[in-house]
Write a structure and sequence with these properties.
Radius of gyration of chain B: 28 Å
Order of helices and strands of chain B: EHEHEHEHEHEHEHEHEHEHHH
Number of helices of chain B: 12
Order of helices and strands of chain A: HHHHHHH
Distance between the termini of chain A: 8 Å
Helix content of chain A: over 70%
Distance between the termini of chain B: 38 Å
Number of helices of chain A: 7
Number of domains of chain B: 3
Largest interface: A-B, 65 and 90 residues
Number of domains of chain A: 3
Shape of chain B: elongated
Structural class of chain B: alpha/beta
CATH class of the largest domain in chain B: Alpha Beta
Oligomer: heterodimer
Strand order of the largest sheet of chain B: 7-6-5-8-9-10
Radius of gyration of chain A: 27 Å
CATH architecture of the largest domain in chain B: 3-Layer(aba) Sandwich
CATH topology of the largest domain in chain B: Rossmann fold
Number of strands of chain A: 0
Strand content of chain B: 15-25%
Helix content of chain B: 55-70%
């Protein structure tokens, strides 16, 4: 029963969502299932918060390596929760001035907004900035001319890189008009519009068919591995 | 190299009858929608039930009545039964559904199915075995999207297979998640896998944890734990964005064997560059069926290939027709064919 019920919920929900996409009269059914998903996700969030707290409290009690960071994590979690639920620094909504908690957390000047803007955003940006270094190291490894394919990749990458910078114009801008197709900026456009688009579309068609087949496998109950096994 | 799954002949069960009935229901819906569409102009989005009301201002002189007569059309918009703009999409779904159903039926009736060897999936057992031999853990990242994303569902089906192998090998699997609902689903999946492997006592829910919904907060945790704990094997299966390269490069730096799969085409080059094996697009969705070896699931892969073949044929016909039209612009039949083709492809 623990597998049959979730499977039927998935089948009914999936067909309802599909039907709502094609039959305007069934749109409300699709919206209802989307709402149900949001409610379930909200309930699951409590479980997620519980898991986070348990994980770090256990780490603290065992005095595992880096337990000090668990204090910071739990402290940040509790402070943000208190500020968010308490709506610190938020004025009541103009439409409902008598209701103290009617203002939104996204309101300008709110403590929650301050945390987001001056703590979360810089930390997020810092992590994102690391990507530049990872791109450099991955490119260094990918562009080693080990075999014919790697050499082709290397040459194509140089054409596109140079063609998209002013260096390309400087290097090949003097080509006469009859050979303008060989200018790096034009070659770069040609590579991106012809080879890249063709390859990308081939992958996209495969993905679309894969999504359809996977959806049908789940809707027909053929694939139950997401429930942990084949036998219902 | 090709592998062949020889499937024993089986009697069609009640369950497959139900599936066929469900598919027939879909076909009937489609036929009904078409019948509805052919009755009227598909371009008219609303079929109005109009009631004309003539209101006349009594104070208006008779000679001006013609101009001041207000004709109000009170229309009660009746919503159409079918969204005709999505006819081509529905046709494709029905076609793929038919191909999948027939292929599953053929597979169940004992027809052998040949499936292309997928190196990344062949390497799963070796990757899990490597982690066992090294005495290190396996890291499984199911993407950063919620359960309403098909890639997350595909990632969890893959998790089920990996967890079962890990349970059989007595390896440890860690699953940090970015959504609490995914955490719950992953716990159920891994628990069931351990149960089916006969190792229910080896399951620990604490290894499947919720970190945060924030993209880079999650990245910070996963990358930090990778550097500290140095897992021997890393799986990245699901929907990824900018974090894909951060994960893959960190995994590469710690010397882990890495297997990735995603349908985000913009992230595929990063995984290809930094991982040992990558499931590209459709391979990712075929992984569960491939690893299961079940005739019904393998049949769906064949149905998928039938759809791909149809697309290839239509593309070839389109290219041919366009070329003919350029060479002979007066060929009306070719022009008509191209119009039909564009409608079939939903253009």
């Amino acid at each position: 029963m623990k597998r049959i019920i979730p499977m039927w919920i998935a089948i009914i929900g999936g067909f309802a969502m599909m039907l709502s996409s094609f039959v305007p009269l069934a749109e409300s059914a699709g919206e209802m299932f989307a709402d149900v998903f949001n409610v379930v996700a909200a309930i699951a969030f409590v479980l997620g918060a519980g898991s986070l707290a348990k994980q770090h409290l256990e780490k603290l009690s065992r005095r595992d390596a880096g337990w000090g960071y668990s204090i910071i994590t739990l402290g940040s979690f509790l402070i943000t929760l208190f500020i968010g639920l308490g709506k610190i620094g938020i004025h009541p909504n103009e439409q409902f001035p008598q209701a103290a908690y009617s203002g939104s957390n996204e309101m300008e000047g709110s403590a929650f907004g301050w945390i987001y803007e001056y703590m979360i955003t810089p930390l997020t940006s810092t992590m994102f900035a690391l990507l530049a270094f990872f791109v450099a190291s991955a490119a260094f490894r990918a562009f080693r001319a080990k075999n014919t394919e790697a050499i082709l990749l290397l040459v194509t990458a140089f054409i596109v890189l140079l063609g998209r910078t002013f260096a390309g114009v400087v290097l090949t801008g003097w080509f006469p008009d009859w050979a303008s197709g060989l200018r790096l900026e034009n070659l770069s456009i040609y590579v991106m519009q012809v080879f890249n688009t063709a390859g990308n579309r081939a992958i996209m068609i495969g993905i679309a068919l894969g999504v359809a087949a996977t959806g049908l496998r789940i809707l027909f109950g053929i694939d139950r591995s997401w429930l942990g096994g084949g036998d219902a | 190299m090709r592998i062949t799954h020889k499937i024993p002949r089986r009697i069609v069960t009640n369950q497959s009858c139900k599936r066929v009935a469900a598919f027939v229901f879909m076909l009937m819906c489609c036929a009904g929608a078409f019948a509805f569409e052919t009755r009227g102009d598909g371009s008219a989005p609303i079929a109005p039930t109009a009631r004309i009301v003539v209101a006349q201002n009594t104070s208006t002189p008779p000679q001006e009545s013609a101009t001041s007569t207000l004709v109000a059309v009170s229309a009660t918009p009746a919503r159409p039964l079918f969204n005709s703009e999505k006819t081509a999409l529905l046709l494709w779904i029905v076609f793929i559904g038919a191909a999948v159903t027939v292929s599953v039926w053929l597979a169940k009736s004992g027809r052998p199915i040949r499936i292309r060897r997928i190196a990344a999936l062949e390497a799963v057992d070796n990757a899990v075995g490597r982690a066992t031999e090294m005495g290190r853990s396996i890291l499984f990242v199911p993407g950063i999207q919620d359960m309403d994303n098909i890639q997350t569902v595909a990632g969890l089906t893959m998790l089920g297979r990996v967890a079962k192998t890990a349970a059989e090998y007595d390896a440890t699997i860690e699953v940090p998640t970015c959504r609490s609902l995914v955490m719950e689903a992953a716990r159920d999946t891994v628990r069931a896998s351990y149960l089916s492997a006969g190792r229910a006592d080896g399951f620990s829910a604490d290894r499947i944890t919720y970190i945060t919904d924030d993209q880079f907060g999650y990245v910070a945790h996963v990358v930090g734990s990778m550097v500290r704990e140095k897992p021997a094997t890393c799986f990245y299966m699901g929907c990824f964005f900018a974090e894909s390269l951060i994960f893959a490069e960190t995994g590469n730096a710690i010397g882990a064997i890495q297997i990735a799969g995603t349908a985000e085409s913009s992230q595929l080059p990063f995984f290809v560059a930094a991982c040992d094996y990558t499931l590209i697009g459709e391979e990712f969705f075929a992984a569960s069926a491939y690893l299961s070896g079940e005739p019904a699931q393998l049949g769906t892969l064949r149905g998928q290939d039938v759809g791909k073949f149809a697309v290839v044929v239509l593309i070839a016909l389109g290219v041919l027709a366009s070329t003919i039209l350029v060479m002979a612009p007066s060929a009306a039949a070719v022009g008509w064919f191209l119009d039909v083709l564009q409608k079939v492809l939903g253009g």
